[in-house]
Amino acid sequence: MTQELHIVGGGMAGSEAAWQAANRGISVVIHEMRPKVETFAHKTGDLGEMVCSNSFRSDDHEQNAVGLLHWEMREAGGLIITTAHQHRLPAGGALAVDRDAFSAAITARLHAHPNVRVSHEEVTELPDDGYWIFATGPLTSAALGQAIQRETGTDRLAFFDAIAPIVYFDSIDMSKAWLQSRYDKGETEEEQRAYINCPMDKAQYDAFIDALLAADKTEFHEGETAGYFDGCLPIEVMSERGRETLRHGPMKPVGLTNPHAPDVKPWAVVQLRRDNALGTLYNIVGFQTKMKYGAQADVFRTIPGLENASFARLGGIHRNTFLNSPTLLDDQMRLRSKPNIRFAGQVTGVEGYVESSAMGLLSGRMAAAEMTGASLPTVPQDSAHGALIYHITGGAEAKTFQPMNVNFGLFRPVDGLKGGRRGRKDRYKAYTDRAKDAWSDWLAAQEPIQSAAE
Ligand SMILES: Cc1cc2nc3c(=O)[nH]c(=O)nc-3n(C[C@H](O)[C@H](O)[C@H](O)COP(=O)(O)OP(=O)(O)OC[C@H]3O[C@@H](n4cnc5c(N)ncnc54)[C@H](O)[C@@H]3O)c2cc1C
Fold first, then answer.
1. Rounded to the nearest 5°, which phi and psi values hold at 393?
2. Per-residue confidence (pLDDT) for residue 34, from 0 to 100
3. CB atoms within 10 A of CB 219
4. Which atom of ligand 1 is nearest to the CA of 47?
5. Ligand 1 center to residue 187 CA distance, Å?
6. pLDDT digit string (tens) for 337-371?
7. What is the reported pLDDT for 323?
8. pLDDT tens track for 218-277
9. Could you say which residues form the signal peptide (predicted)?
10. β-pairing, 195-200 with 178-179?
11. Low-confidence stretches of the chain (pLDDT beneath 70)
């Protein structure tokens, strides 16, 4: 094997990608800019550094989609997950780790691997040839960010996310809400009914604004706001600018008729827009927020129709460099305009240590298969890895694309199971059983590892 695989970024995704490819006989060079070039969040020059929390979240692989990703990564011999288990701390059902021991072990295991070389340098261009995986994360260096924008166009690489909460469709009370686009716009009936509308009267609106203003908020980290712009203001900041601002902005009650009360004009309307092709997830339009998670659930459940809402994810605004993957990447995570380059990790629009590692795992295997001519079956959509990669490279709405955690709303429904809260336990077990079968079959169909290091 004369060709090398270059991996830029030795965080969660880059470390995992390197491990997977190196274990398939590929010669890997990890280019990690730290400690020479620092970020505002990282503190060391180690590989696999956890920038904030020391938790990989739930380890429950029967009832939780993150736990299912853990399971799948364990089955695939994942570096991040197996090292996390070796350095586990007591944390109930969560997988929390001793962060220093964890990243020291990731660093040591990669340095000890005969197929891996680590080079501490910043990469500032997207090369025209060779095999590359860019896993530079939410804090991709400025020079590289500019190079990516030169390739993709400035509107395809964001530097902040502006995440509105996402609700499971089957938890919305459609006896209060209704489907309609403003002024019934659209050519087809589907487009004319593209939004879910939740009406408010004046008293409900006033109470909602009071709750927004009173809610606990999170702050930006030090250094995080560089480059922040006014275009993605949190709803609570909009409401601080005037109690009527939201009613004239995302909550304006115009162009809509409530079929449950056609003669009553709502004072304000909260709109939700479909977030995935499956139609299982809806985001609350314009509701990016920096309210704390507990406060968000309380405030949003005061919206008529959302009293029993289950949230696939809550809102947030963070410094976060990410691509518009649905338009830029193919299903192998290659840049359509430069297929010698793959992206992996948070920069592809997944969010979290676990999801980023999972995308690293896939990209490492995909690159290795391409370089060795080995066959790699399509990642099964029913697995947690498949649900995520399908979402970012195809299933998500490209126009409103925002980073996504893994959650059961990304999975294809299992037929014949009860909807709503009551059926949830059986439904989740059915998703995870189906995913495990699909993932095991996918792993079994791959060629055996050529050289493994421990
Ligand atoms: C402030 C902050 C707090 C966060 N807190 C959490 C949390 O608590 N829990 C959670 O699950 N997720 C959290 N995240 C998200 C977290 O960053 C990701 O989940 C995870 O680290 C992403 O993995 P990654 O491999 O994609 O990126 P990273 O782990 O960030 O790795 C990217 C690597 O690329 C390197 N790099 C960047 N540009 C270049 C370049 N041009 N050349 C060479 N190297 C480069 C960086 O130094 C870094 O080591 C947080 C993010 C931020 C910014």
1. -100, 5
2. 97
3. 8
4. 49
5. 42
6. 999 999 999 999 999 999 999 999 999 999 999 99
7. 97
8. 888 777 776 666 667 899 999 999 999 999 999 999 999 999 999 999 999 999 998 888
9. none
10. antiparallel
11. 1-2, 226-231, 449-454
Cβ(118)–Cβ(111) below 8 Å: yes
Q: What is the largest CA-CA distance in the chain?
A: 74
Annotated binding-site ranges: 9-14
Q: What is the pLDDT of residue 228?
A: 65
Task: Check: CB of residue 191 under 8 Å from CB of residue 352.
Answer: no
- One-letter amino acid at 399 equals K
Regarding the beta carbon of 14 and ligand 1, being less than 6 Å apart is answered yes
Instruction: Taking the CA atoms of 99, 101, 107 and 113 in sequence, report the sign of the dihedral they define.
Output: negative
Backbone φ, ψ for residue 39 (5° rounding): -115, 170
Spell out the residues 6+ positions from residue 152 whose beta carbon is closer than 8 angstroms to its own.
323, 324, 328, 335, 337
Site to substitute for ligand 1 among 353, 363, 405, most atoms within 8 A of C-beta: 353
Q: What is the DSSP letter of 395?
A: I
Q: Is the dihedral of CA 375, 380, 381, 383 positive or negative?
A: negative
Q: Which two tokens stand for residue 202?
A: 């004046």
pTM confidence score: 0.90
* Nearest CA, atom 31, ligand 1: 11
What is the Cα 248 distance to its own chain's centre? Answer: 30
Q: What is the pLDDT of residue 185?
A: 87
Tell how strand 94-97 and strand 334-335 pair up: unpaired
Complete domains list, the chain, with CATH: 4-161+319-444 (3.50.50.60), 166-314 (2.40.30.260)
- Cα gap 16→106, rounded to integer Å: 9
